[in-house]
Task: structure prediction
Amino acid sequence: MATNPTTLPAALRALDITPPAIQTGYPEPFASQVAGRVKRRLGDAFGLTNFGVNLCRLAPGAVSSMRHSHSAEDEFVYVLQGHPSLLTDAGLTTMSPGDCAGFKADASSKGDAHQLRNDSAEEVVYLEVGARTEHDDVVYPDDDLALIRQDGRHVFTHKDGRPYAADS
Result:
């Protein structure tokens, strides 16, 4: 996307921003678990580089991500529609429109692992805001999954360091 300020829009209708064709970088079996999630990358439409803003929709039964925590990236979510279940290290919390939650980065890899789930029969819509920290590692305590920085890019691996691509 062009980042020339003269070509960027001043304002857009969020629903007019086309979701990317590839919605997740997760390897299987995790990719299929987020299949009911659609993200519109609002920040990208304006060339934002310091933080990202996503308008996210979760179909009934879908999850936002695998439960995870970040080493260097703060995250914030704000519920617009529906009643997602927020699963954290403290347990399950049902959220409602107008509710928000924040997750501070923790370099010790002991941050509050979190995930939104749509356990209801209605669609959930929320805003997701996060830093775009280059040196962020992600811990997935419930799954054999890690996201690490390797050769200048993020790579999903097993917890023992083997890349998922090596499984095929």
About this structure: The domain at 26-136 is CATH 2.60.120.10 (Jelly Rolls). The first helix runs from residue 42 to 45.
